[in-house]
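Study this chain:
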Amino acid sequence: MKIKIAVCSLLLVVLAFGAPAAVAGYVGADEAVVGKFAASARRKPTPPIMDADSGELGRLLWLMAGVAGGFALGYCFRSLSHKGKGEGFRRDV
């Protein structure tokens, strides 16, 4: 059990500090793929319809994903804790 915790902790540390370094040189799909096709068709690339980098759109999407995930986890936990009438985690003492 301690080995699993150590491996998971090490993985989290590597991902937390290694991922930003890898992303620094990453070019987005709009620039890399769509830009090349637009250039080959002799057209200039158009800006995205909804710019997720500015404003509160990213926070709204993050909030909605958290609410949906919390609902799903709560629903699944409900099915684990209430197996039938009077069963589950509830104990009458």
